Amino acid sequence: MTTPQELDLTTISPTRLWVPQHVMITRAAADLPHTAEIIRRCERAGVDDIRFLPGNALTGLRGASERETYASAKNTLAVVVAPPSALKPQPIPPSADWRIDLAKGCPAHCQYCYLAGSLQGPPVTRVYANIDDVLDGIRTHAGRGSVTRGTLERGNEGTTFEMSCYTDPLGIESVTGSLAAAISRVGAGEFGSDVQMRFTTKFDDVGELVTLDHGRRTRVRFSVNAAEVANRFEGGTARMPARLAALRAVAAAGYRVGLTIAPIMPIPGWREQYGALLDDVSGAVAGIGDLDLTAEIITHRFTPASKEVLLGWYPKTKLEMDEDLRSQKRSKFGGVKYVYPKQTMTEMREWFTEELERRLPAARLLYWT
Ligand code: SF4
């Protein structure tokens, strides 16, 4: 087991920190206490363009070209008030009972980004300044929900709240502090003892997180992938060894941890590459006492809308999004998504299930999709 003495906090420094070039604060957000914390963090990070807008509309986000608009939006943090429609927790199967959003948008540049097609307008990151209202969803929904709560496999987690549906909360944490606030308040038992938060990240900025009193009520998952996929398609994120070092650090600090192995792709040599990844994870968690490690495995998929947005953002991408090579899957609302054909899915599923058990027996597989 790693003791607190062994966990040298001075060595936990992030390899990838996002610092926005522009910060815009809407009128409604201007006087909220969490906005003061965000400004403090932005100033500390050296941001010198912090603007108070006269109203609540985000203006001036469009550049002369799509390229410029994208670049400028990805360099902008907007501090806004979450509207009532964004405050109502929604069920989010298979991950958690409810979704809670600390922010919407992400500064990274993944060429398969899950947010493509689900966010409107330029991809600016909007952080919610009314964090009390956001977290109030935990209060109103604790003890409710049926995605994980009450199930045989995951009922012991209590009511679960997913925080990374629309953002990478750790990627923006150094300039927002929203995650630290949420983890500390849930950890202190403000919302009862039977709730658990969860988020997934491709960043490694865990220096502050390991100092928090988290009460083991937050599961920190790292989004991991084969080296070739991560290096080629996950721009602006921490490299895989850095994510695994961060995984070790938070696990040693007593957090429940997890892997989001996603999006998996049957690239040439995929068995060797994903095998090496699982072995690296095994090395990263070796010797951690009280380890609570889960795995979620998600295959790559795209929709017509996400493909169109992604090709606009990354016109030269080598990411395979060829409908002819895929199977169509219809959602219950009639939407179409393209997944790998059945035989590929079966092969990958069997391989991952077996190899996870063999190479990483400590990990509990929560779902495959
Ligand atoms: S880290 Fe997640 S949300 Fe951010 S760009 Fe990558 S896929 Fe999109």
Q: What's this model, at a glance?
A:
It is built from 11 helices and 17 strands.
Q: Could you please say which CATH topology of the domain at 17-202 applies here?
A: Rossmann fold
Runs in which pLDDT lies below 50 for 5 or more consecutive residues are 1-7
Main sheet characteristics: 8 strands, mixed
| Separate helix tally | 11
Oligomer: single chain
Number of E-state strands? 17
Bound molecules: iron/sulfur cluster
Derived structural class: alpha/beta
CATH class of the domain at 17-202: Alpha Beta
The order of strands across the largest sheet is 4-5-9-10-11-13-14-17
| Average pLDDT taken over every residue | 95
Protein name: Radical SAM protein
InterPro entries: SPL
Pfam family, one: SPL
Descriptive keywords:
369 residues; alpha/beta; 8-stranded mixed β-sheet; binds iron/sulfur cluster
Topology of this structure?
Blueprint (H helix, E strand, L loop, with lengths): L21 E4 L7 H12 L4 E4 L13 H9 L1 E5 L3 H4 L2 E3 L3 E4 L3 E2 L4 E2 L14 E4 L2 H11 L17 E4 L10 H4 L1 H10 L7 E7 L16 E7 L2 H7 E2 L4 H13 L3 E9 L5 H16 L7 E7 L4 H10 L13 E4 L5 E4 L2 H18 L3 E6 L1
Parallel strand pairs: 1-2, 1-3, 3-8, 5-9, 9-10, 10-11, 11-13, 13-14, 14-17
Antiparallel strand pairs: 4-5, 6-8, 7-12, 15-16
InterPro entries: SPL
Protein name: Radical SAM protein
Organism: Arthrobacter burdickii
